[in-house]
Amino acid sequence: MRITEIKPYAVWVGNRNQMLVKVETDEGIYGWGEAGFSGRELAVKGVVEHYREFLMGRDPMRRGGLWQEMYRSQYFEGGRTLTAAISAIDLALYDIVGKKLGVPVYDLLGGRHRDEVPVFATTPGPYGPDMIEQAREFMESGITAFRLSYDGMDINRGGVFEPRESIANSAEWLIKARAELGNQAVIGVDYHHRLNVAETASFCQMMPSHTLDFLEEPIRDETPEAYEVLRGMTDVPFAIGEEFASKWQFLPYLERGITNYARVDVCNVGGFTESMKVAGWAEAHYIDLMPHNPLGPVCTAASVHLGAAVPNFAWLEINLARATNPDYEIFPQQVEFDGRVYRLPEAPGLGVDVDETKLSEPFAFWEPPHPTRRDGSHTNW
Predict the structure, then answer these.
(1) What pLDDT, on the 0 to 100 scale, is given for residue 187?
(2) What is the three-class DSSP state of 12?
(3) Residue 41 pLDDT > 90, yes or no?
(4) Domains in the chain: boundaries
(5) Which in 20, 67, 76, 344 has the greatest CB count within 10 A?
(6) In the CATH scheme, what architecture does the domain 107-346 have?
């Protein structure tokens, strides 16, 4: 079997761009992958087109070797743009191999450890009473792990975001949420790397112990030493890693005990080939995976297979609006959400398909908001 075509699709799907990749073979078997580098999809498309030039005619069964060749074939190795492209191709190759052998991808990864993949949801509304009510509805439906909202101020419209105001207001409502939802609720919050070390420490110290079960990405990840200092200032578990583009980026966070949940993104870190290495490393340090999954059905399917195939797994991120209102026109075959968990697909490969003829909405330039502090200085979105 040989690769005959690699097609990148940077297209608008629903309410965002998606970077989908289709790999075709001379046996008529094809696979789908997705890259997770949001907001810079055209850059990833260019990398996929470059990889296409030397992957044509190659054997897709040799996916591990092809991963190494893509990663090592330039002097300037790695980086999120390159590994997002590698991820999409790697997922598509696993999809092909699963279809060729007639088995689900999780069987290629060592077989299933579980029959269903648990999820965590995120309250869609603003922080406040509605947030607590939405969390209560999650629990009534059987979803007991979730991220709560926080005071985002005007950040999503590119307006003002003042961290000190946000953390003070958010802490009050998180304390109320824990009191009303009880200890059976697994409560987290994602600050989207919008704080610094002192602000994060103050935020955690504003709340009684066990208000939060996890705090996700409070500061930027470029300097592990900063997270290490922060780790010594609070007992709140951290969930870190959705931006990581390799096992090497995970290395200090796992080996120094900086993170407590590995937020691996199968569409960014390097596909299944790299995710399984991160999973093994995390298992050796008694750390569970908590995969990042904000994209489309291809990403979700891949994340479900990963969640099935590793022993150290906590919850898979879910977009409830998308999961409960699936787009069968573009994605006629999907991994199904039953309202509480993802059931494992039995179909060969990923168990997801894409109707190429429906990928007709052109790529739309999208840029995240550019929020500022009150003094006019730029801050992280």
Answers:
(1) 98
(2) strand
(3) yes
(4) 3-104, 107-346
(5) 20
(6) Alpha-Beta Barrel (3.20)
Please tell me whether the overall predicted TM-score, pTM, comes out greater than 0.70 for this model. Answer: yes
- 163 token code pair: 């961290």
- Mention the CATH class of domain 3-104: alpha beta
- Give the number of other Cβ atoms within 10 Å of residue 381's Cβ: 16
Give me 259's structure tokens. 């993170």
Q: How confident is the model over 330-359, as pLDDT tens digits?
A: 999 999 999 999 999 999 999 999 999 999
Helix (H, G, I), strand (E, B) or coil at 34: strand
- If we measure between CA atoms, which residue out of 308, 250, 252 comes closest to residue 274? 250
Q: Which of 323, 319, 321 is nearest to 335 (CA)?
A: 323
Q: Do domains 3-104 and 107-346 have the same CATH topology?
A: no
pLDDT score at 366? 86
Mark out the alpha helices in the chain (DSSP H runs). 41-55, 63-72, 80-101, 105-108, 129-141, 163-181, 197-205, 224-231, 247-255, 271-284, 297-309, 320-324
Exposed/middle/buried for 236, CB within 10 Å: 0-12, 13-18, 19+? buried
- Please provide the DSSP assignment of 185-228 as one string: SEEEEE-TT-S-HHHHHHHHHTS-TTS-SEEE--S-SS-HHHHH
- Distances 14 to 18, 143, 358 between C-alpha atoms, Å: 9, 25, 12
Pick the closest to residue 162 from 152, 149, 174 (CA basis). Answer: 152
pLDDT digits (tens, 9 = 90+) for 281-304: 999 999 999 999 999 999 999 999
Residue 112 contacts residue 93 (beta carbons within 8 Å): no
Closest among 256, 253, 266 to 221, alpha carbons compared:
253
What three-state secondary structure class fits 337? strand
pLDDT of the residue at 183: 97
The position carrying tokens 């490969």 is 349
- Are 95 and 33 spatial neighbours (Cβ–Cβ below 8 Å)? yes
Question: What's the rounded mean pLDDT across residues 51-73?
Answer: 97
Task: Tell me the two tokens of residue 231.
Answer: 């780790």
Distance CA 376, CA 34 (A): 37
Q: Please tell me the number of Cα atoms within 13 Å of 194 on its side-chain side.
A: 25
Which residue's entry shows tokens 């761009």? Answer: 17
Quick check: 285 and 310 in contact, CB under 8 A? no
Comparing C-alpha atoms, which of 91, 6, 60 is closest to residue 268? 91
Radius of gyration of the chain measured on its C-alpha atoms: 20
